[in-house]
Amino acid sequence: GFLEDGILVRDARRTRRRYLGSWAFPWDVAAVLPTELLCLLPGVPRVPGVPAARANRCLRVPRLFEAFDRCETRTGWPNAFRTAKLMLYLLLGIHWHACLYFALSARLGLGADPWVCPSFARLLRRYLHSFYISTLVLAMVGDTPAAQREEELLFLTAGFLLAVLGFATITGSISTVIVNLSSAAGALYPEAGPRGVLRQLVLRLRPQVFAPGEFVCRRGDVGREMYFIREGRLAVLAEDGVTRLAVLGEGLYFGEISLINIKGNVAGNRRTANILSIGYSDLFCLGKEDLAEVLAEFPSARAAMEAKGRELLLRMGQLDTGAEAAALAAEAEAERRLRGLEAALEGLQTRAARLLAQLEASALRMALRVRRLEGRLQ
Questions:
Q1: Which residues form a coiled coil (predicted)?
Q2: How many Cβ atoms are within 10 Å of 362's Cβ, its own excluded?
Q3: Residues whose CB falls within 8 Å of the CB of residue 210, separated by 6 or more in sequence, listed in order
Q4: DSSP code, position 2
Q5: CB neighbours (10 Å) of residue 298?
C-alpha cells in the first residue's frame, strides 16, 4: 500500500497504477532483465568467472538506499542500524576488491608468482585467500607478497589509495554515531542562534493526529497552540467553512499569529482561519506557554517571528496600522514614564541615604554630649 492524504491505500489496481507511473519502475525493469543470457550467443566475448553481464543488477542501488533510509528513520535503534550498515559496506568493499584481485590473478595466471592467487583445487580456498589479501591491503596492514609486475603494482597502489579514502570515511561515520549517542546530554542547554531556538522548540513538541474531515482549529477560537505538519495535508477554508483558500503540506506550520502579541492585530489572540484535515494528518503541537518560554530566552527569534507575523497580517488585511501606531506610541509613553519613575526612585533613594547618614551623625553627636555631661556630673 501507499499513503494518500494520510490514508493508507491498499487497492491493488491503484497501487499498480501508481508504481507503473513512478520513476522506479523503468529502473527496476532494467535491473531484472536477464542480460547474462547474452553470453550464450555465439561470438559474444565473455570472461570466465567474472559475471560482468549481470552489472545491470547495480541499478537497484537507489532502491537499496531508499530501503536503508526508511529502516533508519523507523527503527528504535538507529545507531545500531548505522553501525551494522557500515559493517555491511566494509565487507562488501572487501568482497569486491577480492573479486578484482582474483580476476587479475586469473588473467596473469594462477600461481604464476608469489603475489597472485595460488591455483588451489577448491574454489572456497581461492576465495578465502583473495579475501584475506584484500583485507590486508584495504586495512593497510601490509605483510602482502611483493608485487613483481606492472599490473600488480598498479593494483596495489589503487588499493592503498582506496584504503586511505575508506578509512577516512569509516572514521567519520563512527564519529557521527558517537556524537549522536552523546548529544542527548547537552540537549537541554540553550544555544545562541537559530539552531538553539529550534532545539528548544523541538524538545517541547507534542504529537497529535487528526482524522479526515476534522477541524484542527476554527476561525474565532482563542489560540493556545501552534502546529507543525509532519505528514498529511490540511485545507485552509474561508469563512463559509467550504471554500478552499490553500492547502498546507508537510514541513509547514500555522497558528503562530494568535500566540504572539502583535500590535495592531485585529483578531487579537483568536484564530484567523479554519484549518481542516483532508486525510489523516500527523502534527506536532506547541503550546503558548512553551513558546513564550523559548522566545524569552531568544529575543532575536521573537523579533523575527513578530516581523514575519506582521507581514502576514498585512497581506491578509488583518493589521490595523492606526492601532499599531497608537500601541507603539503608548508603549513609548509607558517606557518614558517608567524611566521617569526609575529616575525619581533613584533620587528618593539618594535623599533617603543622605537623611539616614545625617540621622546617624546626629545620634553619634548626641551620644558624645551625653557622655560628656555624665563625666561632668561624676
A1: 331-358
A2: 10
A3: 216, 232, 277, 280, 281, 283
A4: E
A5: 20
Q: Is residue 257 within 8 Å of 306, Cβ to Cβ? A: no
Nine cell digits for residue 168: 577516512
CA-atom Rg of the chain in angstroms: 38
CA-to-CA distance for 116 and 108, rounded, in angstroms? 8
User: If we measure between CA atoms, which residue out of 91, 95, 69 comes closest to residue 82?
Assistant: 69
Cell (9 digits) for 117: 592467487
User: Higher model confidence: residue 177 or residue 310?
Assistant: 310
Residue 238 to residue 212: CA distance in whole angstroms: 18
Identify the weakest region by mean pLDDT among 68-77, 90-99, 349-358: 68-77
Q: What was the pLDDT predicted at 187? A: 44
Q: Who has greater pLDDT, 52 or 130?
A: 130
Q: What percent of the chain has pLDDT over 70?
A: 87
| Mean local confidence (pLDDT), 75-99 | 86
Contact 235, 276 (CB under 8 A): yes
Grid coordinates of 360: 546617624
List CB contacts of 231: < 8 A, sequence separation 6 or more.
3, 6, 250, 281, 282
Reported in sequence order, the residue ranges of the chain that DSSP labels E, i.e. its strands, are: 2-4, 7-9, 206-210, 215-217, 225-231, 234-237, 244-248, 253-254, 274-277, 281-287
pLDDT higher than threshold 70 for residue 127: yes
Domains defined along the chain, listed by start:
1-39+49-74 (no CATH), 79-189 (1.10.287), 196-324 (2.60.120.10)
